[in-house]
Amino acid sequence: MEAKILRLNMAGQPIEWLSWKETACLYARGIIGWTLGGVVKKARGGYSRMTGRQTVIPLPAIIACEGSRMAPLRRNPPLSNSALFSRDNYQCLYCGSYFEFSYLSRDHVHPTSRGGKDKWENVVASCKRCNQRKGGSLLSEISMELLALPYRPNPSEYLALINTERIRGDQMEYLRPQFYRYSPQLTCCA
């Protein structure tokens, strides 16, 4: 699997992950403002008629894009089971056991049947057994407790959670200082 390239806005706020092809297109459009990190890939293009040399663009791990039409910072990242389970480290936040993705479910701490919302601050990873045991009950009504409080990840944390491939060390070094202070430590895969 190829490593993704971290795209930032000009203020240095993380926006999204890009493929090397998407990054090469941004270079061709001339909207890369600045870069950080090592080279992820060298994109090779055509040959110059004048020099006979092939165009080579070294693509760095982190790019910042100029322009007013660039994507704004996502303050409320979309909720998905894969990001949720990653946020909770594939641990059931009721019994404390760790599970593979297929054995986990999304539990609403305040059940939707009782007016609870489907949002980061109200959902946790739960094994199917604990989710069924809790059902539509409030925690105060049964003998179950949360091991950790649910929270909405900030944009940097969210990008680390959704990168299912691999985050390079230089990318994680850039993202980690922007994580919430009380977030679990997300670790680097490179």
Task: Please describe the topology of this protein.
Blueprint lengths: L4 E5 L4 E5 L1 H10 L2 E16 L6 E12 L15 H7 L16 E5 L14 E5 H7 L20 H8 L6 H7 L15
Parallel strand pairs: 1-4
Antiparallel strand pairs: 1-2, 3-4, 5-6
Q: What would the average pLDDT be, to the nearest integer?
A: 88
Residue windows where pLDDT falls under 50 for at least 5 positions? 185-190
Sequence of strands across the biggest β-sheet: 2-1-4-3
Number of helices: 5
* Span between termini: 12 Å
CA radius of gyration: 21 Å
Count of β-strands = 6
User: H/E order of the elements?
Assistant: EEHEEHEEHHH
Shape: elongated
Keywords summarizing the entry:
single chain; 190 residues; alpha+beta; DNA Binding (I), subunit A; 2 domains; four-stranded mixed beta sheet; two-stranded antiparallel sheet; 5 helices; 6 strands; 21% helix; 25% strand; disordered C terminus
